[in-house]
């Protein structure tokens, strides 16, 4: 394992990783907890000593971890080969995992969000699953949504099985639309219609000269990529070509810049920072919000919220937050570890939305019955065109440059889309030329 190489390549945890940790309701302490299992030979039941011990590291808040432990127990009961020991990392998962890897103490299997897969794979930390999957007659990889496999791969090799996908969909406040007499958003909407309606929904409700209701809100979420992709552009291509300053990318940035700085349809930055993006929507002050499929925005007490797919540009695309189950290259018994990884991943598919396996598309409401039917439909439809980041060994540094030189200045209105795109492209090319 090239632990030193990994340590030098990781650096700052990306903003996205921090946002994801918050969305996963981390419990806020730094302890690692062993939930069941035993590192020294499993439980003491007769015959269990021959089982291989598989350490499994995961993130999550207390309730989520309790549910995950039940899944682990169920998987363990069905196996004669292994005993999975759940290790929960409650806070700052990327850093804690990096520390374990650097100390040659990597878990056998572990969660890894999409922006880290290429970094770990390039550093020889991960077990190459390609041959295991090819030789597994019980695993039909073609049933996974194609892009979920792409972000679990690096250099034409598969390093993980995706366990969750969370595409961005468009939530909307039904009562605000009804009050304005405007038809609800649907799959026919493009960015022009979206912007027009957002402006129309922005109002001073009590005639005091101050805006009380806004049509939309955004402040770095969804990622800037969402708008770039929709116009046929990209930040960095799959093969490492910098495209953020292409005409298509700049066209997407022009749309985002208009929303941020021209349309007057979103709250001021300081208001968003003080009150929160999703919180303002939940307070009934925002007409439309782009949130993750698994968010609770459609079950806020006292609110009537439905959902649909995001607006389209030259093509329809939405950001997908993805995470994979991966294995350590240093695991003692790779064959058994692969089996545990696969079994655990398939168990999670019955617990978390949206399952990356297309055969489970109709199970969203079974897994999470609190979702509205419109949200469930938007999720499954979005999986057909949702995508994650291109995936690059220096994804964290790429994310930092994009935030510092593009997204943040756009929010602040301190440069034109073309100027900022050109500056970002220069920074990215300098970074990637150092490889």
TrEMBL record:
Protein name (record): Sugar ABC transporter substrate-binding protein
Entry keyword annotation includes Transmembrane: no
Region described as Disordered: 28-49
Family of this protein: Belongs to the bacterial solute-binding protein 1 family.
Database matches in PROSITE patterns: PROKAR_LIPOPROTEIN
Keywords: Signal, Transport
UniProt subcellular location: Cell envelope
GO cellular component, one term: cell envelope
UniProt-listed PANTHER family: ARABINOSE-BINDING PROTEIN-RELATED, SN-GLYCEROL-3-PHOSPHATE-BINDING PERIPLASMIC PROTEIN UGPB
Species of origin: Salipaludibacillus keqinensis
Leader sequence residues: 1-23
Comp. bias (Low complexity): 28-46
């Amino acid at each position: 394992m090239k632990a030193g190489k990994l340590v030098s390549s990781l650096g700052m945890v990306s903003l996205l990783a921090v946002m994801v940790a918050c969305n996963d309701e981390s419990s806020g302490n730094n302890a690692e907890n062993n939930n069941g299992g035993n590192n020294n030979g499993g439980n003491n039941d007769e015959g269990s000593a021959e089982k291989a011990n598989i350490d499994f590291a995961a993130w999550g808040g207390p309730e989520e971890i309790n549910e995950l432990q039940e899944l682990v127990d169920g998987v363990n009961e069905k196996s004669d080969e292994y005993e999975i020991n759940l290790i929960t990392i409650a806070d700052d998962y990327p850093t804690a995992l990096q520390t374990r890897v650097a100390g040659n103490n990597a878990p056998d299997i572990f969660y890894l969000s999409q922006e880290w897969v290429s970094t770990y794979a390039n550093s020889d930390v991960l077990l190459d699953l390609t041959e295991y999957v090819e030789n597994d007659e019980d695993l039909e990889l073609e049933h996974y949504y194609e892009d979920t496999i792409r972000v679990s791969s690096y250099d034409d090799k598969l390093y993980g099985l995706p366990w969750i996908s969370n595409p961005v969909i468009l939530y909307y406040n039904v009562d605000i639309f009804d009050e304005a007499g405007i038809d609800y958003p649907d799959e026919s909407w493009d960015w022009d219609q979206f912007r027009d309606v957002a402006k129309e929904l922005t109002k001073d409700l009590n005639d005091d000269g101050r805006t009380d209701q806004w049509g939309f809100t955004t402040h770095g979420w969804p990622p800037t990529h969402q708008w770039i992709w929709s116009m046929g552009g990209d930040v960095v291509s799959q093969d490492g070509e910098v495209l953020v300053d292409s005409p298509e990318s700049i066209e997407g940035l022009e749309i985002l810049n208009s929303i941020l700085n021209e349309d007057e349809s979103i709250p001021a930055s300081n208001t968003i920072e003080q009150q929160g993006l999703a919180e303002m929507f939940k307070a009934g002050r925002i007409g439309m919000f782009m949130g993750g499929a698994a968010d609770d925005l459609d079950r806020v007490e006292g609110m009537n919220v439905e959902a649909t797919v995001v607006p389209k540009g030259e093509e329809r695309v939405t950001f997908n937050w993805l995470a994979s189950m991966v294995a350590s290259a240093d695991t003692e018994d790779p064959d058994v570890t692969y089996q545990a990884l696969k079994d655990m991943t398939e168990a999670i598919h019955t617990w978390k939305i949206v399952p990356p396996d297309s055969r489970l598309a109709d199970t969203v409401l079974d897994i999470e019955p609190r979702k509205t039917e419109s949200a469930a439909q938007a999720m499954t439809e979005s999986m057909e065109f949702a995508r994650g980041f291109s995936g690059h060994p220096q994804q964290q540094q790429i994310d930092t440059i994009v935030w510092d030189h593009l997204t943040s200045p756009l929010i602040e209105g301190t440069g034109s889309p073309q100027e900022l795109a050109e500056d970002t492209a220069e920074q990215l090319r300098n970074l990637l030329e150092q490889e």
